[in-house]
Structures are given as structure tokens and as C-alpha cells.
Fold:
Amino acid sequence: MRTLSERVMADARSEGNTCIRCQSTGSTCGRHYNGIRQHKYGKGRGIKCHPFLVADLCFECDKLFQEGTVAKADLMNRVAYSEDFQHWCIMSTIRRVERGVIS
Ligand SMILES: [Zn+2]
Structure:
């Protein structure tokens, strides 16, 4: 019996899965949200956010959401970054519900 996290990550990298942001195929993987609210979503030392906060992103789109993309002091851009990443996580979660991966 696989955990929710294992099912989500397997779904993200499943054959033919499209990037939720640009619709490309071939390099899609699950990427855990790492924005300003990550600790509210379960992130801790050695612990990732809740699997509902996973976006299916391709290699290129993932570059936009890597740790350190926005300076810690740049609050307005950090909020925008967070909102954008959350959006793609929510869209990925909706898709997983529609696929029956999450019920
Ligand atoms: Zn993409």
C-alpha cells in the first residue's frame, strides 16, 4: 500500500504526464512547494510539504521555482513567487483528484 506522497510523486512522473504550467512532456516531475508558507504546509527539517503542495513541472519550469530564485529580502516578489507556485500546486492537485489518484 503506497502512501499518499508516493502516489502523488509517481503520478507526477508518470509516462506522458504534462507539465502543469507549459504542457510539455518528457521531463515532468513533482516539485514540492518551497514558498513563504511552506512551514504552514508541513515543511520541517528533512520533511517536505504536504503532498497536496506538489506541482507537476518540467525541467525548464522547475528552474523558476528553485530555492533562492527570489532574494529573502525582496518580500513583494517572494509573495508573488509563492502565489504562482501555489497556483501550479493547486492545479496539479485538482488534476490528480480528477484522475482518481487522490480521492
Ligand atoms: Zn513546463
